Amino acid sequence: MLYIIGIDLNNIFRARLRLTNTTLFEDKRNAMSIDPMQLSESLGTVALAVGGLGVASYGVVDGLKLFPWIDLAGFERLFSSRRTKGGRSWPMLQRAGLDPLLPTLQAAYGKDALELMKAQYRSGRSKGDLQRTLRQGVRIGFGVMSQSEIFHAAYEIGIDEQAAEQAAAALIAARNQRPPAAGETQVNEAEPVSAEQRSALARLETAIDARIDAALVLAEVQYVTQTKVIATTVALTIAFGVGYFLEANPLVSFIIGIAAVPLAPVAKDMAAALQEAVRALKTR
Q1: pLDDT tens readout for residues 29-48
Q2: What is the CA radius of gyration of the chain?
C-alpha cells in the first residue's frame, strides 16, 4: 500500500514538474516577443506610479505636521529638551548646539524666546529669518546682561576661562563708552578696551557665528532625514495595504514602498529616460 502511494506521489511530482517547465518555457517565449514600445510604456508607467506614491507620502507627511513633534523635526539639534525646557525631545542622545545661548536670547526677546525660534524654524528653517534672528538676539542680549552672565555664556560655548573674562570685560567697557541717553548721567568713567580684550571678543563672536551656522546645518540635515524616514514609513504602509487587498506579493509591495520616496523627485525624468532608451534599442 505504501509502495503504491509512493508511486502515485512520484507521478504527481513528475507531472507538476513537466507542467512547470512547460509554463516557464512558454512565459520565456512570450517575454521574448514583447514589443519594445509596449515595454517602454510599461516601465514608464511603473516609474510614474511608484513616484506618485512617493509624492502622496510626502503629502501625508505635510498633513502630519499638524503635530508639533513632526513639524519641528531637526529642532533638537538647536535646542534639546534634555537641557532646555520646551526643546524637542529625541530618543537618542544628540548635542544641541544652541542651548548655551538660550539665556542670551531670552534676555533679548523675553521668556518666550524659544517659541519665537520654533515659529521661525517652521517658516523656513536655515533658509528663513531664523539665522538673522539668532545673531541679532545674541548681540542684543549681551548688551543687557551683566558681566558674570556674559562670562558664563561664553564659557558654556567653549571659550576658555581667561578669554571669557576678557570678552565679558570688553563688552561691559564698550557699553560704558556709549554716551548716556537723554536725562541720564554717566555713572562710571569709561575704561579703554585693551588689545587682549578686543581679541577675546573677536574669538567669542567667531565662535558664536560658527556655532549658529553648524547647528542650523545639522538641523537641516536632520529635518530632511527624518522627513524621508516618515515618508518611507507612510509609503510602505500604503504599499502593503493596497498589496494586501490586491493579493500581491509582499516582496513586490516592499520594493515599491522602499523605492517610492527616493524615486518621487525624478519619477517623470526616469520614465522619459526609460522610454528613450527602449526606443534607441529598437532602432538598432
Answers
A1: 444 444 555 545 566 566 66
A2: 32
